[in-house]
Automatic annotation (TrEMBL):
Gene: ileS
Chain location of the short sequence motif 'KMSKS' region per the record: 795-799
Domain Aminoacyl-tRNA synthetase class Ia: 15-466, 696-823
Keyword Magnesium: no
Name by which UniProt lists this protein: Isoleucine--tRNA ligase
CDD domains named in the record: Anticodon_Ia_Ile_ABEc, HP_PGM_like
Subunit structure and binding partners: Monomer.
UniProt-annotated binding residues for substrate: 504-511, 557
Binding site for ATP: 798
Entry GO terms, CC: cytoplasm
Methionyl/Valyl/Leucyl/Isoleucyl-tRNA synthetase anticodon-binding domain ranges (all copies): 882-1023
Amino acid sequence: MKIMAELFNPKTEEKILEFWKRERVFEKSLKLRQPASKFIFYEGPPSANGRPGIHHVLSRVYKDIICRYKTMTGFYVGRKAGWDTHGLPVELQVEKELGLKNKKEIEKYGVGKFNQKAQETVWRYKEEWDKLTERIGFWLDLKNPYITYEPHYIESVWQIIARIWKQNLLYEDFKVVPYCARCGTALSSHEVAQGYENVLENSVYLKFKLKNSKNTFILSWTTTPWTLPGNVALAVGRDIKYDFVKVNNETLILAQNLKKDVLEEFSQKVLKTVSGKDLIGLNYESLFDIRQLKNDKSYKIYPAGFVNTEEGTGIVHIAPMYGVDDFNLGNFAGLSKIHTVNLEGKFIEDFGAGLKNLAVKSQRAENLIIQHLKNSGNLLRVKKYQHDYPFCWRCASPLLYYAKTSWFIRMEKLKKKLVANNRKINWVPSHIKNGRFGEWLKEVKDWAFSRERYWGTPLPIWRCKDCLASPDPAKRGGAQIAVGSLSAFDELSPKKLNKYIFLRHGEAENNRQKIVSSYPEKKKYPLTIKGAKEIEKLIPWFKKKNIDLIFSSDLLRTKETAQIIAGALNKKITYDKQLREHDFGAYNGRTHEDWHSLFGDKTNQYSIRPPSGENLKDVQKRMIDFLKMVDKKYENKTILIISHANPIIAAVSAYQGYKNEETFNLGKKYTIDGITGSILEITGHNWPYNNEGNLDLHRPYVDELPLKCGKCGESMKRVKEVIDVWFDSGAMPFAQFHYPFNKKLEYPADFISEGVDQTRGWFYTLHAVGALMGKGPAYKNVISLGHILDEKGEKMSKSKGNIIDPWEVIDKYGIDALRWYFFTINPPGEPKHFSIRDVEDKLRRFVLTLSNVLIFYKTYSKVSKSDFYNYYRSWTSMASLDQWILSRLHQTIKETRKNLEKYEVTQAARPIDEFIDDLSRWWLRRSRDRFSGKELNAVSAVLKNVIEELSKLIAPFTPFLAEYLWHNAGNKESVHLEDYPKANTKYINVKLEEQMAAVRNTAAKGLALRAEAGIKVRQPLQKFQIPNPKSQTKPKAQIPNELLELIKDEVNIKEIIFGDKFELDTKITAELREEGLIRDLARQIQGMRKDGGLTPKDAIMVYIKGGADLKKIVSKLQKTLISEVGAKKIEFVGVVKDGLLIDRHFKMENEDVWIGIRH
């Protein structure tokens, strides 16, 4: 690849992308490591129904760096892409686009059509995702992704669920769950954890009047006034002290140590103090008159361990249907379990307050409840209260805690295993292990697993209503089953399954002439003599098969084939139009070559439809419709179907649940015996197929699939729920390869990475599914990434207008600048306050600095391989400056490798930053003169070696910049096919590095003294005094004579002397002044050379016009100036010349000077 040594820019990256694609470098990097040990990586599946954002770039480059590094260290790192396709996010988008407001409207629209729309929606931004993934350099197998809606993926998920069912870890129960009334479904605790918001809302202090008492009230407090109509009890702490307080004409009862906060507005007098146990059993009057809630247990005071005095009144209002603690107390005490709120989150009745059909969290409903309490004398006060409240993580509606029937997984039973498995995981940052994630595991709750939705993996539980209601325990025990495979559908089919034999017609005239011919045939194409004979040869085989029925296409060649066989078997033929040849439309009667030229890739036959004809999807649909009709009409029959190549392979492929690309593999097998008499034999299925003829395990098709009850023989029906979408992605280690049906299993992952919010999401569900499968931790190492915030530290959102478009950043600055920013700005677990200025800084200080080093190398170096190796062998005779830079290089390699092995990316990157500074701002600056002298070959060899090793070192971090450096250093293959560099300890010289640090510190002191004196560096000075080496506390850092020369060059002084302190002789003699003026002239001329586009090899003529003093100085030091600027001759002129390459006017010591250059 030819990558010009221009200044590195986004266009350079695009050229490198083209090179990678053209040379298949990613594929080569995998093939190169094929025999090696595997390093297992899991890609957390994104959803392509939304655009990728800057936070996705962050996670993807962190994944990429580790995968690239491990590949270069010798591992085979498979990188299978994945797509998360189910769930509420997709459903809500489809609802919005279709204008559907709720579940009733979805069902009226049609679940099948709704889910079809959902399936189409999930791919809306796939192309943008693929482009961004490619552009940022994230190498990922996008051609063979796992897709969570595909039948084989779902089948693997079902297998896991069936395993959980067999372990008695999956159960159905009626209890309080977090519930979204807008979405009409329960949520799991890890979903709830992602949706908390800090809100300011009304809290209400209530007075419950005790029965059989005069004006005595017990006080309670709630932040959810909507639950008050459902109140049936109050709870106190048995050992809590409660005061009876006189306020006006009423006696109020509340916890002693909350009295001050609650009654701060009232004058008060304590009448007496009791323990909570003294209040137990007292009756009170209800707030609302609701007959259904009344029984002998209702409206009493009960003891409860969850009551505390941290806030409120020390008395808890109990509504069993709307709180977990409330529900448990209700079970214990036998309280009424009647809903006052429906599943739409609306009040069922008025309840004497005009509440019917009002949304419980609406302001109107709250106002009416508070007004009702005022009117009844039950309201003490309303107070604003700030607290965290859970909202739906997708639709942002406030959640309700609501008692209903749901399915759960017994995660609490696996708590010890979850905690133990976590101990084996390396977390970056480490505090998450026992902090955010570890604490979550310690408090783990049973997984609310089911969702009352549509676009998701169906919960594979089938139940027999009759057996479930039976008094016989044996029947009830088998009334429900978990289906874990497609084969189980066949085994449990209410009907005995048919067997199918598909036969392609024998060779016909159109085959011989290579003509495609469909209905209506333009010519009659009978079987050839050869074709008829080949069919006749099959008759003995068919006789052994006990054929019951024969169906055939009604085209001449299939008719003749069917007649030969039917005659021999003495069977009737049924002709069916659905079995006809693929309709070639406008191509009917044309050559095979013409037909295939329409598609390019074979798989395009599914999407490209010829004019007036069919695509393969159309053919598949009618063939599957035919098979569904036959399966419905017949059972336990052996059925011969005589048709054509495309219809047969489309039918068998779809019927068996193959993917489109697998269809053509089937086609290859099918035609292996040539074009005639080809046979495919399959067993029928009791599987669900959608309206397009595809195997589809979603609702409504799977709901319509009856299974035979193993106990009573009657029909079993599937429960209505789908599963939590997070289980889909959590199951990906198994489902991505269709395990256990395909025995391939890559488990556990060596590495995963996502945002810190996934501690409640994918990180947890992977961990949970691994424990449920008894496989141990699902991953060994995880990098948890902090959120990207705006520059002010605020969350990015469309409403705030502070979202960063990743494409804009990449197009302007390039991806490697952004990658380096993400890796170095702060450790991965910390939030990133995204700043374009910081990206620009990384571009300038790292990317462009290295690019300029490369350009310098290409411009000034002269090196061959032999030069480098000869020089490299003579390590001890190298210049100290070269020994130092190689020592720094290998020390950096050592540090970077050590930290990458620990997954500490930022700590791995920062030594590289420091090395680039050493290389560009010290070694290269101090070596510039060496590139024009006798050391040219040697110093060029060192720089070439540094650039090549550096290319490999930064390759995982900034893959484009690494490729740019590598190729411009004279290499043809990709740097990403190289091994990662190893530090050679014999080149690491700690003493020399300390000495050089002392040199640079000393030079910095000298430059600071120059600046203090206002003397520019180009002006030579005579002396620089530095502290005596004997007084230095670190003997290793004492500066040898050779390195003192570097200080002299850097500070631009003639001699170094030793004394008690740093001191600079600022006296400028006439001779020193002359040298300074010559240096100023040289700088001006070099700048003009660069602006004129000249190379160092281009000799020039220099013309100078100035005063007599300048002329005298130039004449005196002409040789020095000629050498420094690469001039053939310098001529002092009296007038300005024309026809020059470049000329310039400027001032020197307040004197007008003109310089012109001719090439």
